[in-house]
Amino acid sequence: MAVTLAVIIAGLLAACSGGGVATKTMTQAQATTRAQTILRDTAAALNPRPTLEVNDLLTVTDMCLADIPHADQMVNVAYSYWLRDITASQYGDIGRQIQAYWQKQGYNIQTSGGFSTGKPNVYGETRDNFLISLEWSAKGLLTIGATSPCIYKNGTPPTS
Fold first, then answer.
1. 17: exposed, middle or buried (C-beta count within 10 Å: 0-12, 13-18, 19+)?
2. How far is CA 13 from the centre of its chain?
3. Which of 52, 155, 41, 60 has the alpha carbon at shortest distance from 105?
4. Do 133 and 121 touch, CB atoms closer than 8 A?
5. In sequence order, which residues have a C-beta less than 8 Å from that of residue 37 and are 6 or more positions away?
6. 134 and 120 Cβ atoms separated by less than 8 Å
7. d(Cα 102, Cα 158) in Å, to the nearest integer?
8. What does DSSP assign to residue 71?
9. Closest by CA position to 130, among listed 151, 115, 113
10. Which label site among 11, 29, 38, 131 has the fewest CB atoms less than 10 Å from its CB?
11. What is the pLDDT along the chain (160 residues), one digit of tens a residue?
């Protein structure tokens, strides 16, 4: 769990670290919908198709921790699902399928591994700067997640 949280924190920082000052972003609701769409489309491409269960520990909206202007007025949206109804013997193949699907979507895969041991991990970024991950947990389960870049909750900076 500590490793997963460390990866998420590092991911949030990386997602927020873009340069410049955003004058308009997607809204919190739009970011949530986009994260869900990335993950549901990924699951729909898998064989066998998993049942998705929201991973409440990793589904959060939190403050932006980046060193960018107005970060204190911004948030990140993270959404995560447990992949259910897949046997442990299928984990390596599922990891390969997810990596191949994400690459086909034009997403940048930054690191991956663990396929041969049945403990796959894949980390990358979508073209619209959402961080994506497949992680094997210490509980022996797989979870997929997507984290938005830093956004303003309502899409525009709050008035001061």
1. middle
2. 13
3. 41
4. yes
5. none
6. yes
7. 34
8. G
9. 151
10. 29
11. 444 443 444 444 444 444 445 578 999 999 999 999 999 999 999 999 999 999 999 999 999 998 888 899 999 999 999 999 999 999 999 999 999 999 999 999 999 999 999 999 999 999 999 999 999 998 899 999 999 999 999 999 887 6
- CA 113 to the chain's CA centroid: 17
Selection from 56, 81, 67 nearest residue 146 by Cα: 81
Instruction: Please name the residues in contact with 9: beta carbons below 8 A apart, sequence gap of 6 or more.
Output: 65
- Report pTM: 0.86
The tokens describing 35, both together, are 């994260």
SS3 83: strand
Q: Which amino acid is at 42?
A: T
Give the tokens for residue 95. Answer: 């990891």
